[in-house]
User: Fold LacI family DNA-binding transcriptional regulator from Paenibacillus barcinonensis.
Amino acid sequence: MASRREVAELAGVSEATVSRVLNGVGPIREETRRRVLEASERLGYVPSALARSFARSKSGNLGVVLPYVPKAHLFSAYFFSEMLSGIGSKARDNGLDLLVMFQTPGEVMNYTDLFRRQKIDACIILGARYDHDELAAIQQLDREGHPFCVMNQHFTGESFFEVDADHVEGSRLAIRHLTDQGYRNITFLNGPYSYSNSQERMEGVRLGLQQAGMELDPSLLLEGNYSRRSGIEAAAIIAERLHEIDAVFAANDRMAIGVMHGLRERGVRIEDFPAFVGYDDSDAAEMAVPALSSVRVPFFEMGEIAVSKLMHPAEALQSPRTLLPTELIVRASSSSRFRA
Amino acid sequence: MASRREVAELAGVSEATVSRVLNGVGPIREETRRRVLEASERLGYVPSALARSFARSKSGNLGVVLPYVPKAHLFSAYFFSEMLSGIGSKARDNGLDLLVMFQTPGEVMNYTDLFRRQKIDACIILGARYDHDELAAIQQLDREGHPFCVMNQHFTGESFFEVDADHVEGSRLAIRHLTDQGYRNITFLNGPYSYSNSQERMEGVRLGLQQAGMELDPSLLLEGNYSRRSGIEAAAIIAERLHEIDAVFAANDRMAIGVMHGLRERGVRIEDFPAFVGYDDSDAAEMAVPALSSVRVPFFEMGEIAVSKLMHPAEALQSPRTLLPTELIVRASSSSRFRA
DNA sequence: TTGTAAGCGTTATCAA
DNA sequence: TTGATAACGCTTACAA
Assistant:
């Protein structure tokens, strides 16, 4: 572990020049540059990121806030690992390291302190809840001018940097796919209405039905909590009305699969299943039996874009909220071929 | 953003005393402590983690190295998110932040530079491959005395800190479960033999069969790469010998489910399925149809223990390699009740 | 083009 | 029990 001083000595220059060469700043004679690089190479000198951060008052870290996932499994790990990978890939391109933090169940994360303590230069919030305290915490972040971006959650009336997918369109596509095939009694198993996400799905469902000349039957609207278990519970209700219900659209794959399981537990055979469309197109979708049609959400790209916004805030300000397109992936669960 | 200096002034003490109070070091008069805390509170003073790290030459970060997962899906996201959660939970208890890094496909990560640059104080390697370059990189880490821990991979002949699950026992349990139910022709779909993990499973299978008075039939030994696709491919072979093969033990759930899918694609009905046991007990296991029996691996706990070892190296040195117990979870795929 | 030196916000040592 | 002060290793004016 050679010091910068040694490098300077060996190269016969000042320490400042070593820094200049290594940072590629300022005008430097080619000969000097070569000598420094050589010396630094020979001594195996590696500058301390710590000292550099300190001197620049920039940590070089991008904070990523994850919700409290373990054990609960409410949300799919797929969802987060894709986004995290997208964020990681773009962060690396920008020379940023990822500092990941988990939310603690009861308490609200003190986002601003992370900045004040200078642990992070910017942050991406993945598991934002939509409640008073959380909003207040994020608003403070905004007020203090810290760069941040919220994923998968829209805060109405604010103009935070947000990256989300077009769930209105995704849901509309799902519904139209079903109505186009002649399904008329479509149950919609939504997630908690407190998520902007769920609200958008609701909107898309309404739109899709309307375009098909139909209306939402409130009795066909169910609410789960995005867990498989809640899908199983919904199956109890669906099973009872199976003579009329001919299709199920669930707000995520886990619930859709939960419903399938619930029906099966109640002795409903696959041949008698209603059509199914899920949401997220997680890897569980293709593992399901029958393979589950699902609305694909570009999680990886969403992660990349969030980082881009933070790196180019000027441009991002033009449209703080980015909505990525969703796409319907049709599989056996809703294809007429299978169902015929 | 008040400075320490202001706090010192307001409290009528020196800056050094402010630090002492906030760090809880040294003897301090209660009255002074109170005044400092009060002043610091009133001014909203938050010490800079950056400056602190710099002064202490400790980043306060625990590095976590993840393999390159996105898109590939070779490994289950479940696996990593559980471990990461375990690591995160224990890291938080120890006041450490998590710096996560992804491996890049082609290149070997330069672990030592992370330490030399002082980005991290210790590190946990999750996706260690077993090849020459990787081993060399890790050996260097060891040589330079940096604290690190390898998860889920054993390097024979080295005495690195390692945390793994007892895959010999897990596999033995799986096999005994099958033999106990009278299955005689058990196909074992293993992962690449280059992983220590796969080798241990092989050993467990051998042991289990031996205890049942049987021997491994080499023709019943298949090798996949832990992906669902490789399970589907294996199904081609299994389907052909379905008249003799009565059970399948796969080295992970994804492959087990892949085999199920492959068989189904080939028109094999669930009633005619062989018994199945998978491995990892990922959430996919209970979503499978039929629900997949699987060997549970305590990923979360493994993450916690890895951090503990790094925090208490003296004790960890007693037994650098920790093997956590595995457990068989029996579900419909292998239970005689279902199969009868 | 290069050197000198101030400064970054702590911690930690030494005196008092 | 507290204060003064020297590190810590880098960046970055400013001078030369």
